[in-house]
Amino acid sequence: MKTLFQQAPRFVLFAALASVGFTPLAHAQSEPEAAATTNTAQPVYIDKVGNFVYLVRVSNPAQQLSKVQLVRQHDGAKLFEATSRKPSFGHKINVQKLPDGEYTFVVKTGSEVHQFVLDLRTTTERSAQLNAPAVVAMH
Fold first, then answer.
1. Domain at 41-120, CATH from 2.60.40.3080, 3.90.1150.10, 3.40.50.720, 2.60.40.10
2. Is 111 helix (H, G, I), strand (E, B) or coil?
3. Residues 75-104: pLDDT tens digits?
4. Distance of alpha carbon 71 from its chain centroid, rounded?
5. Structural domain boundaries of the chain?
6. Position with higher pLDDT, 31 vs 41
7. What DSSP assignment string belongs to 40-86?
8. 94, 106 contact by CB (below 8 A)
9. Edge-to-edge strand list for the sheet holding 44-50
């Protein structure tokens, strides 16, 4: 009997969470037209996944023609270009061998354009570090 009382609050909590969790899902399924018209954003993410390696990720639920480019700013040269109609896709782009300068990741999806500026610079750093004093001898 004691086990039943211990499990009863868990069951009630699970039932309450389940009913709350399924309500929005049922609502979204009953109105697919409204969801399709209000969700027009095409998120674009760029993550640094290694030294000089970037992952460009695109969410394209409308499956419009999307284009990912890496453009050198000073002359507009397209150094990388790929297209897709997939609902989500990504490309790893390694910029290690590019010379110093400003570049732009350009992602076009339908009429939307997302731009991310990348500034490549080679720097030399000079630093000094003072370590903690060591106790040599105490007299």
1. 2.60.40.3080
2. coil
3. 999 999 999 999 999 999 999 999 999 999
4. 20
5. 2-34, 41-120
6. 41
7. ----EEEEEEETTEEEEEEE-TT---EEEEEEETTT--EEEEEEE-S
8. no
9. 44-50, 53-59, 88-94
